[in-house]
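Recap quiz, item 2
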Amino acid sequence: AQSVSQHNHHVILSEAASLELGCNYSYGGTVNLFWYVQYPGQHLQLLLKYFSGDPLVKGIKGFEAEFIKSKFSFNLRKPSVQWSDTAEYFCAATGSGTYKYIFGTGTRLKVLA
Amino acid sequence: DTEVTQTPKHLVMGMTNKKSLKCEQHMGHRAMYWYKQKAKKPPELMFVYSYEKLSINESVPSRFSPECPNSSLLNLHLHALQPEDSALYLCASSQAGGTLSSYNEQFFGPGTRLTVL
């Protein structure tokens, strides 16, 4: 069955700490992967996406993610978080030729000033 | 223009009311989506329209009725809702058709926060 797992449900960090949020997927065939962020009271915004090619993907606001096919993972990283990164982060997967996203359950990040 | 707009931002309705949510995009996308999102949960897909035809209905109760009058507009008609239907309703759009991966990126609107009394 297709699924996306985010094992960190709540993460609390101090400003300037490094961030890594886990995302593992189970998906048959070619997979496309996304990280979305939802700031408090705001809509989902795309942070970055992986379709093919370089497995290290750079996104907006200093975020990056690495696609590791052998580990079925697409972890999100940021070297130094800011208070403004406080938000909910969702990993999502889909495949070519389908409209359906499979979302992870989300990780709530709180950054302490 | 890479924006998906939704109106209204907030809606409060009684269980006997009929109301509609509206979504609009001008990116030339031919796939449009309705999602329901409860607090602290990921979005749940409700409907997908592709080229103005209903492509996916995720077994949504008939009190939710989608409509796609043209390639830029998507409506969600609401009737006889229950309090448990209170949620954030998100609209999204993407390119449609083919197997190119770039077609899969969905652009989300800000949502309508619905409260059913």
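The longest strand of chain B covers residues 18-25.
The interface with chain A takes residues 31, 33, 40-43, 45, 48, 50, 55-56, 90, 94, 96, 98-111 of chain B (CB under 8 Å).
End of item.
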